[in-house]
Amino acid sequence: MAFIKDEKNFLDIHLGTYELSFNKKYRLISLLNDFTLGLWFLIGSVFFLFEPLKTAGAILFIVGSAQLLARPVIKLIHAFQFSNKRKNF
Questions:
Q1: Are 35 and 44 in contact (CB under 8 A)?
Q2: Which of 12, 23, 44, 78 could crosslink 57 through cysteines, CB 3.0-4.6 Å?
Q3: 63 lies in a domain?
Q4: Is the pTM value of this prediction over 0.70?
Q5: Which residues pair with 11 in a beta bridge?
Q6: Residue 32 resides in a domain
Q7: Are 4 and 14 contacting, i.e. CB atoms less than 8 angstroms apart?
Q8: Where does the chain cross the membrane (predicted)?
């Protein structure tokens, strides 16, 4: 059974006897964004080879372009860490 262990600096995903570790959650999110971004552009490019699929290809290019805009947002969220550290008086 798969489970996820979330610690301060790592996100560990356990799949049976295997374990995937990512340094920070946003690294995983960024990698998934880049992977799907590449898929949309690859599939959209293939769709452009066939006349009936050109509209679907254009839609995939628009989705991929939106994901390109999401990349710096993900990096900004990763760069800023908010924490509640109150001093006891």
A1: no
A2: 44
A3: yes
A4: no
A5: 6, 22
A6: no
A7: yes
A8: 31-50, 56-77
